Amino acid sequence: MNRSEPENRDLFAIADLADEFGISTRAIRFYESKGLIRPERVGSTRVFRRRDRARLILILRGKRLGFSLRDISDYLSLYDAQSQTAQVTLLINKVDERLTLLEAQLDDLQTTIGELREIRKLATERMPARSELAET
Fold it and tell me: What are the tens digits of pLDDT across the range 118-131?
């Protein structure tokens, strides 16, 4: 069977999406249980459409950027409503919140790194010379 590129296909099996995005089928079922994606059913088989694939891309990008599932859900609900102004406004607000948090964490990390370097420097200066250690 000759498979088309994912963007050109209309239907996807759960295993196809899991393989494509490097996640488990369990993760996909979890996102489904949270209402973030809504595959159709053919008997007991999940059938995902391009829309589900696009939503999964947004979910995974949001998770990678540190957004909560609640934030992602809010964004996707506006995506469904096709309210571009509301969607973009929410996105800007959430991105601003995330940037503020990450910048504060970066400041804290830089302070901690500086303190650790200073402690290491002071400890190294107090360390007896290696030749003195060899004599004892």
Answer: 999 999 999 876 65
